[in-house]
Amino acid sequence: MSARQLIQYWFAALLGLSVVLPAVAVEMSDHFALVKGYFPQADKVGELDGQPPSAPVYQGDHLLGYVFFTDDVIKMPAYSGKPIRTLVGFDMKGLITGVTIIHHEEPILVTGVTEQGLQKYNNQYLGVDVSKRVKIGGSERPGYKTIDGLSGASITAIVLNATITRGMREIAIARGLMTSQGKKKQETVQESLGDLYPLWQVVWQERVFKIVVLCLGLFVLLMILILQDWLVAHPTLLERIRTGYLIYTVTFIGWYALAQLSVVNVLTFINSFVHGFSWENFMIDPMLFILWGFVAMTLLLWGRGVYCGWLCPFGATQELLFRIGAKLKLPSFEFPEAVHVRLWAIKYLILLALFGLSMQSLVMAERYAEVEPFKTVFTLHFQREWGYILYALGLLSISLFNRKFYCRYVCALGASLTFPAKFRIFDWLRRRKECGRPCRTCETECEVRAIQPTGEINVNECHYCLDCQVTYWNAYKCPPLVEKRKRRERFAKTPES
What we know:
By secondary structure, the protein is of the alpha+beta class. It is 55% helix and 8% strand. The strands form 2 sheets. Strands 1-2-3-4-5 form a 5-stranded antiparallel sheet, sandwiched between helices. A two-stranded parallel sheet has the order 6-7. 39% of the residues are buried. Residues 9-26 and 178-195 have low confidence and may be disordered.
């Protein structure tokens, strides 16, 4: 059994394991310091009570307002698939007095958004009236309060906003606002709650343009794959199409739509099966949901190479940089075959380590998943600490001299895609009996060195660039075809007897 097969065996075995941590009851009094910040005059906070639960805050016998945990009211999953636990307070006038995130498992909040940036976001809710809708971005309009979002964390910000505002409205209705002003607010609240859609539908409606452009791009790629035998017979056209698609992947999928997939998505998906699966958890981000759906389909039909070779923004960036390096005549290097094959194991070891960590703590796994530079490059557009920036730039710099170094040897996401790809239905990449014995033309030309000396394509490492298929149909490069062509030419020149 090879090292890679051993890693895959143990990974599959570990899929059946889970660590279930006991829930810990938390009293509202445990957070009195925070409550005191919301209500400086407070000297007492009651227990969580009622449906939905909230706790009254007092100065002596005078009721100042209420505090509640958002996930006690609305268990709305965020990007991680888990609810964000936020402590919210509002006074008897229906004005928000404080917002603090107590617990979350959001990758972008674990590493990526600073405490100052998160606090700045939360402070925008201070003084907001319960009767107003709060929307992220855009212009002000009657009945709405507009706030700025979290840079690089749009889905997380949307979920935070929905749980804070909807939760406060439900608590306001349940507790009742007894003054004439309060009764008016309650009527407004009830009216606004009646026409609310599920959050994932709201997000999909807001991102129609991005969804349409992504679906069109995926349709184009599907046509490329279906028509691949015709395209490879026209190598210049294929090269132009591939270059254009790589630019689309980097600019639209990566930088604009922020749809770079991550191994964190894989760990979250596995974790959801352990703790309760729901499609709505994943539909909250339409770009990732659509992209993952397409990747799942192509995994079964073509293998992992379609994503790694065409749809991964970081992989596309490396490929374009290598081409730039070649144009600038920069020297390139490759590892010896024995070293190259063993370096493949690194990404599987990284994946295994991250998976083990996720069984204990998804947050811990998300921290160590920063081995992926994707968040730095695309989600945060290099707007973060220097250590992360230097790491990402270092990997990109290597790609000028070594083709797709990160993809081949380090990418845990690519490693995770090899497992479902084992069940692919078709072998679309054509080979001849002479491949590897004696012909090794495709092996030497393969951009990621996924063709073995014996001629077989290692589908676990193939990035589906179609270069080998161009050679397969080329009567001037493929030795068996060259020989046949020359025989035809000699026959054509032979005079008739």
